[in-house]
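Hi L., both proteins are below.
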Amino acid sequence: MRIQLTVNGAELTGTLGEGAAARDFAALLPLTVELADFHGRERVADLPRPLDLAGEPASTTAQPGDIAHYATWDNMALFYGNQHHAAGLVRLVRLVRLGRLDDPAARVLADLPESATAIVELAD
């Protein structure tokens, strides 16, 4: 499933995966979210509700361009830097990959101001 992210005049595209969480995320679209920088490697935004995690792995790593869901905090993360396996503090952090943004998304995300409004929607 193709998606489009519009932020600060840039239109980024990507592809969602086939898992339950990705399908549930797609059902939320379109969304307008406030992206905030987190640890100098990702942009995070709150989601309106938890996603379905049935059959998803306990956690994963993330690379620049990945779209992910931090189940622990019910938010979306758009990575522009690397994230090592997110098993977290006493395994409290659960990171689920939802999909991947196309190039040059990681560079665009890295160059955003501290916070920015984004629209996430299904692509035509």
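That was the first. Here is the second:
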Amino acid sequence: MKTVSAAEMRELDRRTIESGTPGEELMRRAGQGVADIAGDVLASRGGHSILLIAGTGNNGGDVFAAATSLSETDLDIEVWICGSQSHIKGDAQLHLKKMTRAGIIPKEVRSANDLSPKTWPDLIVDGLLGTGSKGAPRSFMGPLIEWINNEAQHAFVISIDIPSGIDADSGIAAGPAVKADLTVTMGLPKTGLIRPEALPYVGTVETVDIGIPLEFIEDTEGCEEAVLIDRSDLFIPRRERDSHKGTYGHVLLIGGSKGFTGAIAMAARAAVRSGTGLVSVLTPEEVYPIIALAAGPEVMVHPFSNSGSVPKLFSKHWNKCSAVLIGPGLGRSNETLALVEALLETCGVPLVLDADALCVAPEKIAAAKCPVVLTPHPGEFERLFGRPVTERWTQAKEATYKTGQTIILKGSGTVVAAKGKKLAVNLTGNPGMATGGSGDVLAGLLTGLLGQGMETFDAAMTAVYLHGIAGDIAAHDCTQSALVATDIIEALPDAFRFLQSR
């Protein structure tokens, strides 16, 4: 999804208002979107109390519109205004009046003594500062933001448009900034939300359609460097009634070694959940029984006696596979290096290099006979390209031009890069996914999507988005602290359902 600067969004709002949609109506739609998402969050968490915190600008108007909509529910609603109501003007003032007529009387907060909610909230909505804010928060805004972040230990936090305290264009926080679990942004995502500098603050991003005409959006240039991966841009084709397992491909996964059997098994289980027709695993003879049991009955597991025999086995038995993954649990050795180099020279279908397979020279990858997707975390990226990751966007672009291949640079704000494409930034997922095996699940899911014929860049974007959504679902069910990689696999069906429900 295209991202825009604060100035571009203001221009889109202006043109929409001039075309006949009043600013008051745009604000109502924004508030309704926030209210709908807030209600869903509370329902999923079993919560009942919500504290909405407004500034005196237009972001505050979105808060008032949301509170008015929520007044029709049985939720326990409280609204705070940071500052004086007398400073609220224009459309925000109109929605403030509607909110008070609906029976919600806001409380002005101006000092630490005012920071006592009637009921400790299950959900906090941050509408303090909007896209026009620059520099560090002033006056009591700073202490209030710090209070919100402290309460986030117990309450879920939603920010409206941008987390208060970060710059809408650069993503930089010049002072205290709200650390949101979810940012609900209006119309189009602001470029600052996807910048690496903003990652500690934005959480997951959801976009509310407030009715900006499509032709206005198409006329807007947006960020030249990157886009946000959004479910509206992704597509899982409907399965035809007369299809069969051969329709959806046959993927081969190569990995596993003594002491490292879980990685390839989890990758295989994720590939099965991807929708691909058949999944085979090629693994060392000494761990074959363990992996055959761990991968599950849907997976065909085959042993090899030594890695040097794999290229011959591949050319004889597996050359009709539709995608190949190599690396999970395979071990870092000269034998692994030789095997990966041989596959780069002989494989004719999309090849995913993950984990221990990220051991070859970039020049070898650039000379591959097939499309390749690399899936490094920052440590593997440094090993592969010889530099620590300090500038995620720049280095991801440099790496894809050096190899000519698609790269998924994993981590918070996972980046998908491919030659000739804008960077795609993913903001689904959560810190609970920082657990062993999570990357193996992504690699298996990606391989399964490639095996169904999806183009490499599209498959990479879809895989990281679904992986993150599955992680969010799993964290809801299991908590972030207790989440394990197999929970992500079990959540994949619900992630697919979420993607296909748009």
